[in-house]
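Handoff note, outgoing to incoming analyst
You'll be picking up this chain. Sequence as last confirmed:
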Amino acid sequence: MRAALALALLLALTACGRSAPQRALPPPAVTAPAGVVAANAVLAGVALGPTLAALRLGDGDARGALASFVESCPRLLARDDVSGLTRREDWRPVCDAARSADPGRARAFFAEQFTPVRIGDGKAFATGYFEPEIAGSRTRRAGFEVPVYAMPTDLVRGWPDDVKPSERTGRPPLGRYDERGRFVLYHDRAAIEDGALAGKAQVIAWAADPVEFFFLQIQGSGRLRTPEGEVIRIGYAGQNGREYVGIGGVMRDRGLLGSGPGKYSGSMQGIMAYIRDNPREGRELMRLNKSWIFFTELKGDGPLGALGVPVRRESSVAADPAYVPLGAPVWLDLDRPEANGLWIAQDTGGAIKGANRFDTFWGAGEDARRIAGGMSGRGQAYVLLPRDAAARLVASRR
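Most recent structure output, in case you need it:
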């Protein structure tokens, strides 16, 4: 899954923030030198946060988080944590305890096993995503003309000829080899919409509405409901390697969003209303986002997050793995009360970058669409680490 290509750049809303209480404790274990951009959580700075008792974790919230944490454990134990916060062995006793924990004592489990820490200044910004359901068909027919492509076979990684060998660092870019054998960038959204992949990539299904499908691509997964009532679940398989542009930010720069006459709200619903009211301008606006998402049909339980486990409503959150170990619990205290509480980091997103940047998952249905489409919360975030890992970080500072 894009998992979850969040609405961050799409919405770009603002809201007032508030912080949870924090006790005075040792300063961050490590901080980035002046002028250096922090590349992971340790370089951003780590400080102990409040106790879980002070955060007032509720029983229902704890039970949902425990279930999602248990699902995450097999992957958590098999991954290397690039945030610098934990080691694989830190999670083994915690996962063993989670598997045998009584759901009725879930709150006690988190209090006994974890220590909340603050990454950087802890100032959080959270958006929302959901699993959209749109009209679709297994076969192309009248009213169903938008192809839902699987990964094309000619999408590869390579170095353009004009990139010197000494400059070929990191992962090669995504692209394709043209008819003359030259490596070029892959087809962008406009080219794909104009038929560049016709006959060259498998079509999983056909969507009815190009606007709805555009927003489903931003979410990274969804459902297609056929006229016969069949539900086809699709999940993120890959991307064309082209630039992602948040059209909400473009609309704001153009003065199209706001509260005055002729303005549209910055929510997903407001942006969709503008595109439908102005189809020609709306089509060109969507084409500014050159990124195209390819899908695979899902047969299992729930949409899968980047961790490889199903994401769950009000329990799963997308985060940047450079700052949050995927599988770790995260506490959010925001100015949007519905997003407050304990989440499990099980997903990532193209726009979810940096410390304390999150994307909350709200499931499927109209209420999920409404909440996720308008979610923009600011406040405080804490990552819950196994006690031994948190103690080691504090000791390293001393």
